[in-house]
Amino acid sequence: MRYLLLGPMGISGAETAPAGPRLRSLLAFLVLNAGQTVPAGRLVDALYGDEPPAGASGALQSQVSRLRKSVDIEYGPAGYRLVADPEDVDVLRFEQLAREGARIREAGDPGRAAVLLREALGLWRGPALVDVAHAPYAAAQSARLEELRAGAVEELAEAELALGGDPSELLPRLREAVAAHPLRERLRGQLMRALRRCGRAAEALAEYETARTLLAEELGADPSPELAAVHLSILRGEEARPALASRLPAQLTSFVGRDSELAALITLLGASRLVTLIGTGGTGKTRLALEAAARLPGEVCFVDLSAAPRTALAVRGALGLRDSGADDPEAALVEALRDRAVLLVLDNCEQIIQDAAALTHRLLSHCPGLRVLATSREALGITGESLRPVGPLDADAAARLFTDRAVAVRPGFALDQPKPNSLAVQAICSSLDGLPLAIELAAARLRQLPLAEIADRLDDRFRLLSRGDRTKPERHRTLRAVVEWSWSLLSDEEREFAARLTVFAGGATTEAAGRVCGAGPDAEDLLASLTDKSLVEAGAGRYRMLETIRAYASEQLPLSSGELVGAAHTAYFLELAEAADPELRSADQLRRLERLSAEHANLRAALVRATRDDRPSALRLLTALSSFWWLRGLRADVAPVAAELLAALGGDAPGALPGSLERSDFDEAYVLCVLAAGAGGAVPDADRARAARIVAERDRPFRQPFTAFLWAISAGPSAGAERPELAGADPWSRALARAGSGHLHLFHGRMEEAALDLTAALAAFRSLGERWGTATTLTGLAGVSGALGDTGSALACADEALALFEELGCWEDIADLLRERAELLRGAGQLVSARVDFERALVAARRAGTPAALAAARTALATCPPS
Fold first, then answer.
1. Which ranges of 633-769 would DSSP assign to H, the alpha helix?
2. What is the secondary structure of 96-117 as a DSSP string?
């Protein structure tokens, strides 16, 4: 709720201000003292003056009671307190901003001060306390606030004069302020200075004469020494200061999608004298800098360094300074900017980064009123530099940008006309990494191509997006040119490393990049350098390339090197998967799951490559990852790759594979391949029959303890997978075998035996600290309790299992368990709660993404119509 007194009284969040003058007066006084406890006696004096009527205290209590129906008022022995954040009271907000603006201007930062003071004065909507002018306290408070307002106007004028902007913009406001306060000599002096800077010295001197006459007639006094000094400086011609010759380039298109970033940048420029926008080519750094500069007060100078041999020469030209023939052009710049409050926008610093950094440091050191906003693909590296990364647009902003530019070339285009446009636009923007330049180039192709064809041809994005604005610099005309511009900034070593880095899907850790790319301990420095130059993004201990950069860099990788790096990538992630798999059945389960989840894209890419080039490694990788895919519910995602591997194996026996596997290992991998492929749809009957024979004929434990369990889940509990000889000797396998025995007893209705086995399995899994086995066993115990009619115990077991499955992210298990929980609730007559769980099961099944889970959830929900 916001309280407004600087103009007509208002309360946002309430329908109207309180009715009745006394009630409004009470509220206004409490607002003026918001957050403070006001004694009852002081409130009575504020409402009635020095002679309150009899019963005033009772009347006050009644009025407060009425107010408390619409605003938050606390009462205690010391008095009454309006509960409100000072930020929500326009009077208090104004006072705070005015004080802070004056302090900052005095400290030498007129730009930031002007921003605060404009905000402060913008809170005024008319005379203060106008609706309670009759109240005894109103005249004094109104006069106080008007005095503060006049002071804020003076401070703002002083800040704007220091910034050196166009003084003609100041004149109307200063004339209005002088007319309202004709005896305020500081305001009169500011008006005189503004007139002189506009070249109107005679009018400035006339203002002095008007002030001198008025002071003599009204006060019998002479002008103050300060006003007399302004008069003298004008007579001497000292107040003139020509504005900079430079202007910001005019923009021909709308600014889309970075409003919050723009606001943050403007705030940052108020607090820091050097801000550098960094990011890869095409992210819109220049446009963001121009938009920010256009919204800031004072003089601005824009300098394009993309083709400049030296920064100082480019800045001198932009400032309109003559070539003095001096040996040190930087010294001339220092003299030109020493006493100015100027924002210098240095665009495209990356080409001459060292030179740009050196000049920026020198200018900032000697010109206290100077601020610099730089754009670059790497930081200037100067002490005090504030970095502001400019990344891709988010999905909504990218779609808005595409639509905005598409309408310009095809007026009938709209995001929802026809409806499929929405999905196609989102797909295009996602494929182009949300890069504004790439999106604009793609939208421009609508002149020649339909939307669907643009989306289909983005695999060859550099050829598709090869036409741009002829008036743009060469580096911004095509998508390839943008990336080549960044590529040209790299050393040979960085280029080779970056090209090899494209083998990674979904990013890489430093250790992985060093081993796979052959960089060893140098990987850390190379990654840092590529990050500094905006070719790589860093975050959460990982490094990744935008897909557009990756596509270009991969073209620079020779075929022979690509094969070697691909083999190293497969080997690295096979080693990672095989090392992590046993830990998935330990107390370290969650951490290992997170590690593998972070590398899921790389693991999948390695499996795809190995399926094509190295089937023994593909089978080993599939075996090692089977439990991870199950626990994370990723089987539907890898099912197409598993199906491709299954088809590639055909009738191969182990001996037919290069670097052949042992028969036992091949057979097990084959079974797991059938199971993984089946998650995405039907598997050929011959393959499923062959897998069934392998399981039936097996006379020793599987290497992967999950294999027997997964086969039992797929083929049913009577498929022979419960045989003791298939269980391993390790504690986890023994616990799983005991749990499997319990589930089998439950399936056949032997509740006592089921409870005995499941309780023993639960104790074993708990001792190992393993969550999935614990949750699966609890699910069985929930079934036992439910069959015995103990709904409370069944729900307790189900709830604990749900919490564990949610920790693990096992969405298919969650969907199954929610259906079972819903059946328990339905059996107990809790139909509304049952319906809720059936609906939750459908949500979980959608997240799991497997056809079987979705079908089961939809069928179950259909059996429980809304009550």
1. 635-649, 663-678, 685-697, 706-715, 731-747, 751-768
2. HHHHHHHHHHHTT-HHHHHHHH
Residue-by-residue DSSP string for 132-164? GTTSTTHHHHHHHHHHHHHHHHHHHHHHHHHHT
Distant-in-sequence, close-in-space partners of 82: CB < 8 Å, separation ≥ 6? 27, 30, 31, 33, 34, 35, 71, 72, 73
Q: What sign for the dihedral angle of Cα 706, 711, 714, 716?
A: negative
Helices (H) and strands (E) in the chain, counts: 40, 11
What are the tokens at 613? 């080039």
DSSP string, 301-357: EEEE-TT-S-HHHHHHHHHT------S-HHHHHHHHHTT--EEEEEE-GGGGHHHHH
Q: How many residues does the chain have?
A: 867
Query: Is the Cβ–Cβ distance between 204 and 240 less than 8 Å?
Result: no
**CA dist., res. 659 & res. 575, Å (int):** 17
* DSSP annotation of 506: S
Tokens of residue 728, six digits: 């391993």
| 802 exposure class (CB count in 10 Å sphere: 0-12, 13-18, 19+) | buried
In the numeric block, which tokens belong to residue 466? 């090869």
Q: In terms of Cα–Cα distance, which of 254, 323, 318, 320 is closest to 291?
A: 254
Give helix 110-122 / helix 259-271 axis angle, nearest 10°. 120
Question: Is 442:454 a contact under the CB 8 Å cutoff?
Answer: yes
Residue 439 CB partners (closer than 8 Å, separation 6+) = 393, 398, 401, 402, 405, 428, 429, 432
Q: How far apart are CA 643 and CA 130, in angstroms?
A: 78
Q: Are 533 and 377 in contact (CB under 8 A)?
A: yes
Task: Map tokens 């589930």 to a residue.
Answer: 743
Low-confidence ranges of the chain (pLDDT < 70): 13-19, 108-109, 163-166, 237-247, 250-253, 306-307, 320-327, 408-409, 411-421, 447-448, 456-479, 481-482, 485, 534, 651-660, 680-681, 716-725, 849-851, 867
CB atoms inside a 10 Å sphere around CB 526: 24
Q: How many CB atoms lie within 10 A of CB 470?
A: 6
Q: In the numeric block, which tokens belong to residue 429?
A: 């923007």
**Which pLDDT tens digit goes with each residue over 166-205?**
677 778 888 888 898 898 889 998 888 888 877 788 888 8
